[in-house]
Automatic annotation (TrEMBL):
It is a multi-pass membrane protein. PANTHER family: ATP-BINDING CASSETTE SUB-FAMILY B MEMBER 10, MITOCHONDRIAL, ATP-DEPENDENT PERMEASE MDL1, MITOCHONDRIAL. This is ABC transporter. InterPro entries: AAA+_ATPase, ABC1_TM_dom, ABC1_TM_sf, ABC_transporter-like_ATP-bd, P-loop_NTPase, Type_1_exporter. Keywords: ATP-binding, Cell membrane, Membrane, Nucleotide-binding, Transmembrane, Transmembrane helix, Transport. It is found in: Cell membrane. Residues 19-304 form the ABC transmembrane type-1 domain. It comes from the Bacteria. It comes from Paenibacillus agaridevorans. Residues 357-397 are annotated as: Disordered. One of its GO terms (molecular function) is ATP binding.
Length: 633
């Protein structure tokens, strides 16, 4: 998406409203500029003593008609643009959401949710203001300015007097050129500070329970205060320059009025122009003041909006770094769901998707990165072409390998257990299987196809992944369990809940499966939440099931029951069980032990015990713990 797309797309859809509104503004201004002329005539008749009671009433009606005509027509013109502005918000918030949803996990791990919310709220609103309030005021003000100047020229006021009076106004473009970039830069600073504050607030509220338990509200308050202070100081710096600018524009208008009064007054005294002409001139110049003030306003708003627009365009030009082949294949689970991993080495690498990162790269003008599209493509390309070690490297910088030379073969319909110390790369391996991050080509295969050649939809539909900390949405338990199959009947949802051993807990709630969960499912305990998330994975009944430490928060008895059930329902279906507790995976057809990003042992439970290696050590420690607990009872 090129940088002008947001506005171009919008105006293509709404230009008719704008044309209509500007035309109405023009009509309203034409009506309005008759005001001084009528008053000028009134003054002349008054001075000549020809004014009658009838003509006073007539003048009053004319002025009333001018006033109400201007209000009604101008008001409708304003409404049209305001309405269209709201449409802009609606259209672009939707567009942003869809765009955000298409970006990969790498993007989210580099850009906080708070900052993205700030784009949604502050930046879209800033642009909306400029294209609704800004367009309204610009249209109204410039029409009024033009028609006022035209009317001035049509009066019998000499041209040199008109020219002298409006001369200061010609300096306005110079002032705008001087202040505009300054306002834009400072607005950018304010928007960034607002983004940082939203991000901080989001994090602080998200972690409020931890804060309270550690009684560090004051520390967190002070930390939040820093972000608020930063906004204040940046706002003040913006207000200083924008207020000065905004007062300078009417000041030039006032100078015009002074010239009109002094020079026009002198010419009236010596009889060069009539009193009516003088009144009309000063009223016209006075009439210019409002539009000038408005134009000052608008320029301010537009400069701010330009900063926001730049941020939005920058965001919308972010390409998802996980993309599909043009000729992506569908995962065909009927032809087998065996999994092969061959020589897989992986490092997370630096972020190419951080928004600031991209801006910095733009400034540094990466060689060969002529435009954003080109750069994104080259980044994506560099990821597709791993270095000699098969590494997902870019830019040649040193990157820590999280997985090293992983080789695995899982026959269709069998169960693989993965165990290993924390941080040994188990979850990373699953993320690569799901292409949450891209593995180097030719390293992970499902059903005989490289996962990089499969369509993302079919790949992810083919795998039910149950993470350790499954996120629950703020909706009902039923909707959370039926997340993948939204049309599931209640009995199906209940069955999944029973299999995940969470049914009994759910039916104890007054609303049972219709119980609404708070943010992140706060009304459930850790174990209940984990089992609800497990039920969500079970109901999907995918060809491949991955349990990534999915029963770590349940007691040993329930864990055993769940694992027995899983063995039952997954008979003949490919399953991967990642666990820290040997009891959760000892029945697997094959078990691999990971350490430091590599597979250090493999075999069945009995074979591994016989090896006297890391698995045996883990087993003995866990057995000892179990025995101690047993003695303790
Ligand atoms: N998004 C990421 N960016 C950079 N490094 C990451 C990212 N996610 C994980 N890592 C790093 O990769 C390594 C492996 O993490 P991973 O989550 O795969 O381990 P794990 O074996 O699943 O651990 P655990 O048993 O604690 O869940 C860790 O050192 C971690 O710090």
């Amino acid at each position: 998406m090129d940088s002008q797309r947001i506005l171009a797309d919008f105006f293509r859809k709404t230009w008719l409203y704008y044309v209509l509104s500007i035309s109405l503004h023009l009509i309203a201004s034409i009506v309005h500029v008759n005001f001084p002329r009528v008053l000028g005539n009134f003054t002349d008749e008054l001075k000549e003593g020809v004014l009658t009671l009838d003509s006073v009433i007539q003048y009053s009606w004319i002025l009333l008609a001018i006033g109400s005509g201007y209000a009604i027509i101008g008001g409708f013109a304003q409404y049209l643009v305001m309405y269209t502005g709201r449409f802009f918000e609606f259209m672009n918030r939707r567009k942003l959401f869809i765009h955000f949803a298409g970006l990969s996990e790498r993007f989210y791990s580099r850009n906080g949710v708070g900052k993205l919310l700030s784009y949604f709220m502050n930046d879209v609103t800033a642009v909306r203001e400029s294209i609704s309030m800004g367009v309204n005021q610009t249209a109204g003000a410039s029409m009024l300015l033009i028609s006022t100047v035209v009317m001035l020229l049509l009066t019998d006021v000499p041209l040199y007097l008109v020219a002298a009076s409006i001369f200061p106004l010609l300096l306005i473009p110079v002032v705008v050129a001087w202040f505009g970039p300054m306002i834009k830069k400072r607005s950018m600073g304010v928007q960034e500070a607002l983004g940082a504050m939203t991000e901080s607030a989001e994090e602080q509220f998200g972690g409020i329970r931890v804060t309270k338990k550690f009684a560090v509200e004051e520390v967190m308050g002070a930390r939040f205060g820093v972000t608020v202070d930063r906004i204040r100081s940046r706002q003040l710096s913006l207000v200083r320059v924008s207020s000065f600018f905004q007062s300078l524009v009417p000041f030039l208008g006032a100078t015009s009025l002074i010239i009109a009064l002094a020079f026009g007054g002198y010419l009236t005294i010596n009889g060069t122009i009539t009193l009516g002409g003088f009144v009309a001139l000063t009223l016209y110049i006075r009439m210019l003041m409002n539009p000038l003030q408005q134009i000052g306003n608008v320029i301010n708003v537009v400069q701010r909006a330009r900063a926001s627009l730049e941020r939005l365009n920058n965001l919308l030009s972010q390409r998802p770094d996980i993309t599909e082949d043009d000729e992506a294949l569908e995962l065909d689970s009927t032809s087998g769901t065996g999994i092969e991993v061959r020589g897989l080495t992986f490092a997370y690498g630096e972020s190419e998707t951080a928004i600031e990162g991209e801006r910095k790269m733009k400034a540094d003008s990466v060689p060969g990165a002529g435009d954003k599209k080109g750069r994104s493509a080259s980044v994506a390309e560099s990821k597709r072409e791993p270095g000699p070690g098969g590494n997902d490297s870019s830019g040649g910088e040193a990157q820590r390998e999280v997985l090293r030379d992983i080789n695995l073969s899982l026959a269709p319909g069998t169960t693989l257990g993965i165990i290993g110390r924390t941080g040994s790369g188990k979850t990373t391996l699953m993320k690569l299987l799901l292409r949450t991050y891209d593995p180097p080509p030719g390293t992970i295969w499902i059903g005989g196809e490289d996962v990089r050649r499969l369509s993302l939809k079919s790949l992810r539909e083919g795998i039910a992944y149950v993470p350790q900390d499954g996120f629950l949405f703020s909706s009902t338990i039923r909707e959370n369990i039926a997340f993948y199959k939204r049309d599931s009947e209640l009995p199906e949802v209940e069955r999944a809940a029973k299999l995940a051993r969470v049914y009994d807990n759910i039916i104890e709630f007054p609303d049972k499966f219709e119980t609404r969960l708070g943010e992140r499912g706060v009304t459930l305990s850790g174990g209940q939440r984990q089992r609800t998330s497990l039920a969500r994975g079970i109901i999907k009944d995918a060809p491949i099931l991955v349990l990534d430490d999915s029963v770590s928060a349940v007691d040993a008895v329930t864990e055993t029951e769940i694992m027995e059930t899983i063995r039952e329902i997954r008979r003949g279906k490919t399953t991967i069980v990642i666990a820290h507790r040997i009891s959760a995976l000892k029945h697997a057809d094959a078990i691999v032990v990971m350490d430091g990003g590599a597979i250090v042992e493999r075999g069945t439970h009995e074979e591994l015990l016989a090896k006297n290696g890391l698995y045996r050590t883990l087993h003995d420690i866990q057995e000892e713990g179990t025995m101690r607990n047993g003695t303790g009872h």
